[in-house]
Amino acid sequence: MCTDLKNFREAIYTKHFTLTAECFLRPETNAEAIRLQADVLRESVDAVLLTDNQHGQLHMSVLAAARLMLDNGLDPVMQLSCRNRNRIVLLSDLLGAAALGVTSLLLVRGDRIPDGFEPRPKAVFDLKAKDLIATATTMSEDENLQPSPKFFIGGVVTAYSPKPGWVPNMLIEKVDAGLHFVVTHLCMDLQVLRDYMKHLIGNEMTRRIAVIVSTAILSSAEDALWLRKHRPNATIPDSLIERLAAASEPKMEGVAICSEQLAELATIPGVSGANIMASTDLSMIPVAISAAQLDGL
Asked: How far, in Å, CA of 41 to CA of 216, rounded?
């Protein structure tokens, strides 16, 4: 086990700009694949996000993947979806996470299974995301659990341009239930993001939670169009797709776009950090981070 471990919670509270990366969990992912991903990302990010059977894709238990990441020196942010589990299994996974040393959680409702997925699994939704957040909070405060898990609890939001006077009631309910941070769905339209953050600041939400913005390294215009169509609530402006289509080396153009976005995100009031996803090549994430020149933040 690696003992020189970065901590996501500490990074949120001590760094101006926190970085996470979304790791690949696929049907063929095994312990060695987890180790290789950790080796690529360890020196560049503060934590890794492990999604829970995203798009209905089968892969190893997210709890097992989180433990493997810990063993390889990276703090996992472990997603749990209400779509896939009833309340007994959700509670069991929370207890298992606490026992294995996993403290950062991303608790979500879960997106619908894409059309054409066969055999089609039955959605559960025994708990809502707010209920799961409240449950994890209660467990964190339960003196009968020794040691107390003290979970660092996150949720997801969609950045958009709200109307004047908008109040984020659903987010407020989740924060009241115990939310500590949110990760946005993919948002690469920074004007939309600026509008959204102004409303969160106006509603004093950034006093209560940290906001991590999801961005991506797009490998081509086709990749961007696929993400915009299939990734829930993804926002990728036409200007970026046109830029990728015109580039002689689209993959490197995607890295340049990501680095530019990271540098700008670090200047937006209320933004605590970025979550970076790469569709095909995780090794490009450290390249984009280095090019963004965030070392002084």
From this structure: 15
Q: Where are the alpha helices (DSSP H) in the chain?
A: 8-14, 31-41, 62-71, 87-100, 129-140, 169-177, 190-202, 221-230, 238-246, 250-265, 284-292
Distance CA 13, CA 9 (A): 6
Residue 70 has pLDDT above 90, yes or no: yes
Phi/psi at 273 (5° precision): 170, -175
227 backbone dihedrals φ, ψ, rounded to 5°: -60, -45
Please indicate, yes or no, whether the overall pTM of this predicted structure exceeds 0.85.
yes
Strand, coil or helix: 187 = strand
Alpha-carbon distance of 177 to 225, in angstroms, equals 36
Structural domains of the chain sorted by starting position, each given as residue range(s) with its CATH number in brackets: 8-292 (3.20.20.220)
Q: Show the 3-state SS of 260-271.
A: HHHHHHCCCCCE
Residues 129-166 have pLDDT tens digits of 999 999 999 999 888 887 778 999 999 999 999 999 99
Cα dihedral sign for 223, 229, 235, 237? positive
